[in-house]
Amino acid sequence: MSMVESIAQKARNAFPALSKVAAEEKTRLLEKIADLIWLKRQDILDANKIDMEKGERSGLTPALIDRLRLDEKRLMGILNDLRQVAALPDPVGEVFDESILPNGLQIYKQRVPLGVLAVIYESRPNVTIDVAGLALKTGNCVILRGGSETIHTNSALVKAIKTAIDGSAIPTDAVQFIDDPDRARISELLKLHQYIDMLIPRGGETLHRFCRENSTIPVITGGIGICHLFVDDTADLGSSLEVIRNAKVQKPSVCNALDTLLVHQNIAAQFLPMVVSRLKEDGVTFRAEPQAYQLLKEYENVVFPAQEKDFDTEWLSLVLSLKVVQNLDEAIHHIRCHSTQHSDGILTQNSENADRFISEVDSAAVYVNASTRFTDGGQFGLGAEVAISTQRLHARGPMGLRELTTYKWVVRGNYQVRP
Amino acid sequence: MSMVESIAQKARNAFPALSKVAAEEKTRLLEKIADLIWLKRQDILDANKIDMEKGERSGLTPALIDRLRLDEKRLMGILNDLRQVAALPDPVGEVFDESILPNGLQIYKQRVPLGVLAVIYESRPNVTIDVAGLALKTGNCVILRGGSETIHTNSALVKAIKTAIDGSAIPTDAVQFIDDPDRARISELLKLHQYIDMLIPRGGETLHRFCRENSTIPVITGGIGICHLFVDDTADLGSSLEVIRNAKVQKPSVCNALDTLLVHQNIAAQFLPMVVSRLKEDGVTFRAEPQAYQLLKEYENVVFPAQEKDFDTEWLSLVLSLKVVQNLDEAIHHIRCHSTQHSDGILTQNSENADRFISEVDSAAVYVNASTRFTDGGQFGLGAEVAISTQRLHARGPMGLRELTTYKWVVRGNYQVRP
């Protein structure tokens, strides 16, 4: 049996015991993990330093180095999230859809843990803590496969988590970590459907495609967002500008940042120059389709003609695509053709248009008059997230505790038989 | 573009229009389909005769011929189910998990259709009507791929369905049928994740494995049930016997039929001979592990020593595995090792044992004092089912209308930005 299979089997074998653990016990464990990580913070930050030095030597970009960097303040923020997750109600055991059938059978659904999760991710070490916390809180075993660039940090974090588990009612094998950076381990992992119930790749399109094409385990893909805002001709333009700026510049490297701005033709001549003049101060450059480009000639040092592919690009940087549309219909049509169904919004004072946008734009999160940057487990009140799903099966958008559960049907009778 | 891709693309393109259709319109369509199939019943039964004759010539077993056979009575039963589905409330549009965030954002989930479904199935022509009905009722497009042995029947049914759709507000392309029996079409279908959101194979383990290993579309597998009943030492033995008999003989060829009977050692000597003596009258034969076999020596013409693999066999016929267990723990352990997590039950008067069984046996449907034969969309009040899922993601057990939906997050604000 390979190392990866042995890890997966250990997680599977730990599941029955973990799924029986009481809610309070799991809450206490999460708090203990938070305490222990903080206690061991020096070891963890030392390990993180090794990863960063290695990253610098191997020529990682400053942006990537920043993603993997931990310091006391960041660690404290992550642990606060973990304590928030600990304090949330445990969805496991919840009874719903109860009914009595005409034959007297009592039937209901009861929420149970999903089983064994495997998460493949890159750089950001907060994922290790977020995912382990959400999984344990819901009675799931988890197999973590972080990126090679954070292997020392993640090892130190997992060591602290396992120490916290030791001596609790939770089986230590509930959390597994694959510390071999060889990518061949991922290929092995993808075939272990007899042990693993759900696979979440958190990374770029290449990783997602690889998982989709090679996994025999059900996969949740997501985290890739070509996000749109449409400014209707009734929008409050001053407020809209601030929402657009927030969606584009507050954290441009993430999936819920704005990629394309669609502007109603009636206000384009007034509003597009406002947008460009404000956002260029933040360092934003623009890709404008011809009609928009015409209106922005005086900004030729920051506004460039858009290529068709620009509207299918997730920028992850300070670039914004611009397009003038005739009306709501054209906006919806454009979004339908180019969105990755992550987060899309309308800015409008027209409630009919708002309703039509909500009903006809079929993305994981649909916004009226708010920044797309809110699509996030913490912001949505879920405490944290294991991923943001952009597929339609099982869960859409930020996945928190509930999305790590499934249900069983319970049928209680009095020796009924089927006629 | 291949025929299959063109079919999938047509379904995908029909989805936005279908997803906007009002609930009453969809209800009316299902009733119209039922009317029209009944009106065209002679064409459909004629087509069915061709399939049956072809089946007989090609040497299909009488059991298989019976599965594909339609007559007026069976057709009427199927259409009654369809009318029941029509009358159920439409889950699409339902709002849930509503809240106001501290920053004033109004956030809720709204149920929306899943998108485009593809279902690969065999023999039974009721699946064509059940699946089309459930899909249309929930605003989903569907690609049907029935077995080659029912191709004439299915073509006639789909023709009637499409005639009913024609002239309604529903796009005709919403229902697609692959009428090429070549299995290569399945391989093509499995790769079309850009058009298809969920794939359901309904068939044997070989088909499921093929889909799991080759599909880039999320797959729901299920319908394979190694089902158990455990008779505790407090069970009402007379009533238990009737439940066991129902679970085994009422329809032995289906997934929710009983495969293994576990009997508490305290009652085994009394109860096992009762079971064998009663069920042999129905033509059941038995595979008994040594301890059970010892108790059943006088029935040597119907009770045979069990092989280890017998406890991992879905019989689909009048065979029952028998095993004596020491107690509830051993019963739960046996089920954990051998169940396919479809339907498992306990027969007991001890409510503590009932609760422990429910909590520790993690199958899609868990029973106390009832026949496993109830695991069925119709029996559970769902009207019909597209499949019975035995995986954990998205849906477990019978999948009806709700399980053909997903949700979007709707966020309504007043120009909020993320700090």
Protein described:
The structure is a homodimer of 419-residue chains. Chain A has helices at residues 3-19, 23-39, 41-57, 62-68, 72-87, 126-137, 151-165, 184-189, 205-214, 237-249, 265-279, 290-294, 328-338, 351-360; strands at 95-100, 106-113, 116-120, 141-145, 175-177, 198-201, 227-231, 258-264, 285-288, 303-305, 319-325, 343-347, 365-370, 387-389, 397-399, 405-416. The first copy, chain A, is of the alpha/beta class and 419 residues long. Chain A has two domains: 3-221 and 391-412, Aldehyde Dehydrogenase, Chain A, domain 1; 227-374, 3-Layer(aba) Sandwich (Aldehyde Dehydrogenase, Chain A, domain 2), CATH 3.40.309. In chain A, the strands form four sheets. A seven-stranded parallel β-sheet of chain A has the order 10-9-11-8-7-12-13, with helices on both faces. In chain A, strand 4, helix 7 and strand 5 form a beta-alpha-beta unit. In chain A, helix 2 packs antiparallel against helix 5, helix 3 (41-57) packs antiparallel against helix 4 (62-68) and helix 10 crosses helix 11 (265-279). Chain A is globular, with a radius of gyration of 24 Å. The mean pLDDT of chain A is 96.
Number of E-state strands of chain A = 16
Order of helical and strand elements of chain A:
HHHHHEEEHEHEHEHEHEHEHEEHEHEEEE
Distance between the termini of chain A: 48 Å
Give the total of domains of chain A.
2
Please give the share of residues in helix of chain A. 40-55%
Helix/strand/pairing category of chain A: alpha/beta
Radius of gyration of chain A: 24 Å
- The CATH superfamily label of the largest domain in chain A reads Aldehyde Dehydrogenase, Chain A, domain 1
- Quaternary structure: homodimer
Largest sheet of chain A: 7 strands, parallel
Largest interface: A-B, 72 and 72 residues
Mean pLDDT of chain A: 96
At the fold tier of CATH, the topology name of the largest domain in chain A is: Aldehyde Dehydrogenase, Chain A, domain 1
Strand content of chain A: 15-25%
Q: Please give the count of helices of chain A.
A: 14
Describe the strand arrangement of the main beta sheet of chain A, using strand numbers. Answer: 10-9-11-8-7-12-13
**Poorly predicted ranges of chain A:** none
